[in-house]
């Protein structure tokens, strides 16, 4: 009985603490003020595990069709490049201003040790559903699956493209 | 007045929805678009079995086709114009 009382008291104190922080306005939500290391780690781990879990059963179609690359290329140029950059571009207003900073997709990210299929699943899921409070929109609300797989096909090749190849692939007919 | 309000309540959301659907049509992107610069394509370094090379070839072939079509259309217009101007001249003689 005593343990229950202590647990109840701790729960009430926890709620009171959270409510004080929420309503006092002391939490800085400015995008130019980064999270502390612990908060950043918590959010990043939560995000990465959530995406990996949600995407794990997605079936990846054949992405080698050149038409998919062309469709994905022009969509990338007009929907993604302002945040995720173009070959040899180091930064943009959006890549600098957004927090968390959008990943530079022109660079191969091997550190996550993903196989190509799992990476394609994750790209597809993120493009389709977006990520809450990150600036990444849910393009699936306005774009069909074929368009999204086109973007995935393009993203797979993006780190290998020269600026000249990028220009040709992303230009509109 | 009440009917007008009802109509506005139905029509306005419909207009807003249709506009938002159009906003993602690829043709809306054309304003910012630039043509593919195919002159920088180095065929000697390209692996023609690579999807990137194949896509680039397709894009440039499409562009060349469009350019050819546009030139043909120009010639057509020129013929049409000369015929028109001849007709116009004939009209002038009649008067």
Could you describe the 3D structure shown?
The complex is a heterodimer of chains A (173) and B (95). Chain A has helices at residues 2-24, 37-55, 66-79, 81-84, 93-97, 116-129, 145-157, 163-170. Chain A contains 8 helices and no strands. In chain A, helix 2 (37-55) packs across helix 6, helix 3 (66-79) crosses helix 7 (145-157) and helix 6 crosses helix 7. In chain A, 58% of the residues lie in helices and 0% in strands. The mean pLDDT of chain A is 94. Chain A is elongated, with a radius of gyration of 21 Å. Chain A has 173 residues and is an all-alpha fold. Chain B is mainly alpha-helical and 95 residues long. In chain B, 68% of the residues lie in helices and 0% in strands. Chain B has 2 helices and no strands. Chain B is elongated. The N and C termini of chain B lie far apart (59 Å).
Largest sheet of chain A: none
End-to-end separation of chain B in angstroms reads: 59 Å
**How many alpha or pi helices of chain B?**
2
Biggest interface reads: A-B, 24 and 27 residues
Number of helices of chain A: 8
Radius of gyration of chain B: 25 Å
- Supply the helix-strand structural class of chain B: mainly alpha
What does the radius of gyration of chain A come to? 21 Å
Based on CA inertia axes, which overall geometry of chain B fits? Answer: elongated
Annotation keywords:
heterodimer, A: 173 residues, mainly alpha, B: 95 residues, 68% helix, elongated
